[in-house]
Model the fold of this input.
Amino acid sequence: MSLVPGDGAQINPFETARKQVDIVADLIGLDDGMRAMLKSPKRELSVNFPVRMDDGSYRVFNGYRVQYNMARGPSKGGIRYHPQVSLDEVRALAAWMTWKCAVVDLPYGGAKGGVICDPKKMSKGELERLTRRFASEILPIIGPEMDIPAPDVYTDSQTMAWIMDTYSMQKGYSVPGVVTGKPISLGGSQGRGEATGRGCAYVIREAAPHAGVKVKGASLAVQGFGNAGSIAARILQDEQGAKLVAASDSKGGVYKADGINVGALEAHKAKTGSVTGFAGAKSISNAELLETKVDVLIPAALENQITSKNADKIQAKIVAEAANGPTVPEADTILFQKRITVLPDILANAGGVTVSYFEWAQDIQGYFWPLSEVTNRLEGVMVRSYNDVHKVAEEKRVHNRTAAYVLAIQRVADAIRMRGIYP
Ligand code: GLU
Done:
């Protein structure tokens, strides 16, 4: 993943998340009480914990788990390891998980976790000790019926295996359903690893005809050639005939007008650690990548990449947000005026949490599905959800993000109203 803070590094993502709720609350006329509930995280746990480093010293790390809303079910969302993690970032990501689960209609609320650390500078042993201690600290508020973590930026199936083991050791028996995104051997699901990218590719395919784009032969630029971005590109290339022309990561980007083979670029990155230096390609910056003239731009890195400063320079016909929060509200307005089709994060990257839901359902039943069943069901959820969002966008004459929020917020607000306020 490309993990460089963009132009908008100073923008507070939680302010963005709250602004997005206000836009929709005004549009659908939510009362002040409901608006306040939807703008507030339900529960926040902040932990400071020591980790023994390889050189024998101890370091104290800060981590968070925020459970934003549980009206529709247990809360769900990843854990990210990154030097720029902050409580407000985790709150925003937890809010976005709430809307994401609602827009694809999963029986979940939303949560997120994060630890301030630089995993690229830590050994595997240090990461294991950090993960196990963080898991122990948040253990009282996670569980398969309460809050279910998953991978996010710089965490993976190994991280989930350590959390599952730590939780299970405390319980005295194996609890696979406490996390998703696990290795297959521990109750992970077929297809979970590629689910975010695959879901994003399905949404692009569905939206393309409405945006005047033919996916076969369409040019693609991917900011953040990591798990989500590279897989979306691979599926768009192999299954739909699109052509990758630009890709980037935290070290920089590459551009080649007549196309870059996704598999070859993946192999180059696996070998060298970056997309930079790919033979025959011109090197470009992350900022230039965003402004490249392409049919489809896939921001698949961090928040705040498309802001009021560069939105006017975006030349793509479709912006498909594989990342969470890459576009700020002011930029949304500019992109809408430019008639660029934005496929918002809470829809475009919901394939990951959708297959997480399938994994959890399989764990709870102890009955596992073949890959074809996972893929077919994922496609069904993504196609249905795109159509739901598109219908609201047409009816209300709003852009897709607002439409997705209308759907999601109505669903969460309905659940809150039906349950009533306790006591
Ligand atoms: N971290 C992913 C996301 O932002 C997946 C979360 C999950 O599977 O729970 O959607």
